[in-house]
C-alpha cells in the first residue's frame, strides 16, 4: 500500500479552538462570529447594550466588544444555574483597558447587593472578591502595577473553597494570592453584569474578548492552555491515519513528514491540525461461538 494512501484529510470550517482543559460552564467570545452568545450550549446567552465590535487580541478585525465607559454600555448575562460555581471557579478574559476602573465579571446580588466579583479597580490594578453566600467576605487579592493600559492583557481570577485560596493571574502568571481564614461556598447564584454596576461611578472602558467561566480553580498550565480558547483558525484540518497491523512503521514516519510539510505551507495564516487514528481491519473483541441449525434443537 502506498504511504500516501494512509492519509485522508478532512477540511473543516473555521471553529473555536479547543484545549486539553475541562470545558467551561460559560464562554462568551464577544466577536463578530458569535457575539454575546454562550457557546458552551448551557443557554446563558448575554445581551450587550451600547457596545460595538473592535479589533481583538488575535489580530482579527472584529474580535472583541468595545465598552464606552458610560452607563449605557454594558452586558447582562442570565444565570440558569449552570453559572453557579459555588465551590470553586476560574474567570478569564482578554481585556484592553482604556479607563481607570470597572467590573469585568460581576454577580448582581438581590437588591444590587455585593456577590462574587472580578474587577479592574485602578488603571493598572485588578481585584477579586469571593463573597460568601451569606453576604460576608474577607480581604482578598488586589494587585497594583499589573495591567497595561491601551494593550491586551490576559487576566484571570481563581478560587477554591476546599483550600480557601483566592488568586489573580495576568498573562498566564500568578500575580496575587491570599488564603481565606474561613473559606466557604460563594455567592454565584445570581446573574452577571459586565462593565457596569448600578449606582457605581466606576464603569469599565475598553475592549473585552473571550470571557470564560469554569467551575474549578485552574492551574497555571491550564490557564495558559486556555489563552487561545476563542481563537478562530482560518483552516482546520484533520488527518485520519490507518493504524492497522498491515501498515508498516515506515508508513507512519512518512505520514508524519507529510503532515509537518503540509502545515509549513500555511506560514502566512492560522491553521489548526489534528490527527485521528483508526483501524480498517476488524478485531475480535468477544468470541461468542457459532450458532447453527444442528445445535438449535439441543437448545429448545
UniProtKB/TrEMBL annotation:
<dbReference type="InterPro" id="IPR006558">
    <property type="entry name" value="LamG-like"/>
</dbReference>
<dbReference type="InterPro" id="IPR036465">
    <property type="entry name" value="vWFA_dom_sf"/>
</dbReference>
<feature type="signal peptide">
    <location>
        <begin position="1"/>
        <end position="21"/>
    </location>
</feature>
<dbReference type="Pfam" id="PF13385">
    <property type="entry name" value="Laminin_G_3"/>
</dbReference>
<feature type="domain" description="LamG-like jellyroll fold">
    <location>
        <begin position="87"/>
        <end position="221"/>
    </location>
</feature>
<keyword id="KW-1015">Disulfide bond</keyword>
<dbReference type="InterPro" id="IPR013320">
    <property type="entry name" value="ConA-like_dom_sf"/>
</dbReference>
<protein>
    <recommendedName>
        <fullName>LamG-like jellyroll fold domain-containing protein</fullName>
    </recommendedName>
</protein>
<keyword id="KW-0732">Signal</keyword>
